[in-house]
Amino acid sequence: MARVKLGGTDLEVSPICLGTWQFNMGKTTINWDGQSLETSKAIVDKCFEQGINFFDTAEAYPGSEEALGACLEGRRRDAVIATKYGFREGPNTPPYSAEDIQNTIDKALRKLRTDYIDIMQIHFPAFIKDYNETVAELNRQISLGRLKHYAVSNFGPKNMKQFTEAGGRPISNQMGYNLLWRSAEYGVLPVCKENNVSILAYSPLQQGLLTGKYATLNDVPEGRRRGKLFSRDSTQLSRHGQDGAEKEVFEALQRIRVICDKAGVPMAKAALSWLLQQDNVSVVIVGASNPQQVVENSNIVKLSDDVVKQLSDATEELKAKVGETLDAWAHPDRCE
């Protein structure tokens, strides 16, 4: 698999990154069944076979850093690890000070069984206590060799401006971005391109909607109807209080299905390929519950310009309905 360089650095990663939020040491969560460590190891093995060297985890994903560390034991130097700091156990958890950043890096290094982290990301802007203090501490950690680079996640245009004005030079911004959730196109993509910040697109298949396996609203598992694409009445697990865009979502999915059928490209492959053909999108982050899904998600194709345009046109109405909302889960928006 080809490599891409992030944010003007020499750091080379595969354009497919394995998202490891489902690496949970066998513990069942709202969105994912328990996944054994043996299965996680088999998935990582398959990643290396397919040429994937990039792995994304986070402090906030229970068991993920520990599982990934175990899976990479003995081959750490062959992998690029991105993790994130920021974990809120309750609504009043304070943002992170320099000391908190150091402590979470200590924990991450221990869990990941490594002496350095390739990319440390700030999970949400709300975890920043003071922008200047945060940038200074991240640079200090780089000087100590504990971090190679730092980056951000879920940062909107205002957040990016505050961070760069404090002297921050993130190499990437990890954003929710896919055919059904295109709000990053309004402000995030332009400001990131201007600052040479690569986009890492998470939820590229919109939690399975873009795989084609959910034809109707009732087909979608309740745990995957928590986001703002769905009505607040769709599930008691919802916390955004919004009307959603269910009609527009399933109309768009039908149009996408027809386009993919005519082009002879499976919907999931088309959705991932469409993303990687968007300006300044360097990487798509995709999870896997078994090794075969790694193979399926690695088979990216070059779509014709006409098919790319058709797919974009198919979701324009939904894009307009969502608007500039960046946070797919909570209200008010945590990303600005």
Description:
Helix 1 packs parallel to helix 9 and helix 7 runs antiparallel to helix 10. The mean pLDDT is 94. It is globular, with a radius of gyration of 19 Å. By secondary structure, the protein is an alpha/beta fold. The chain has a single domain, classed as TIM Barrel (Alpha-Beta Barrel), CATH 3.20.20. 35% of the residues lie in helices and 14% in strands. An 8-stranded parallel beta barrel has the order 3-4-5-6-7-8-9-10, surrounded by 5 helices.
What's the CATH architecture name?
Alpha-Beta Barrel
CATH superfamily: NADP-dependent oxidoreductase domain
How many helix segments?
Answer: 11
- Radius of gyration, rounded? 19 Å
Distance between the termini: 35 Å
Task: Please trace the helix and strand order, writing H or E for each element.
Answer: EEEHEHEHEHEHEHEHHEHHH
Q: Which sequence of strands runs across the widest sheet?
A: 3-4-5-6-7-8-9-10
Number of DSSP-assigned strands: 10
Gross morphology: globular
Mean pLDDT: 94
CATH class: Alpha Beta
| Share in helix | 25-40%
Write out key terms for the chains shown.
336 residues, single chain, TIM Barrel, alpha/beta
List the SSEs and their pairings.
Elements: E1 4-5, E2 12-13, E3 16-19, H1 37-50, E4 54-56, H2 64-71, E5 80-85, H3 98-112, E6 117-122, H4 131-143, E7 147-153, H5 157-165, E8 172-176, H6 188-194, E9 198-202, H7 246-263, H8 267-276, E10 281-286, H9 291-298, H10 305-314, H11 316-322
Parallel strand pairs: 3-4, 3-10, 4-5, 5-6, 6-7, 7-8, 8-9, 9-10
Antiparallel strand pairs: 1-2
Helix pairs in contact: 1-2, 1-9, 2-3, 7-10
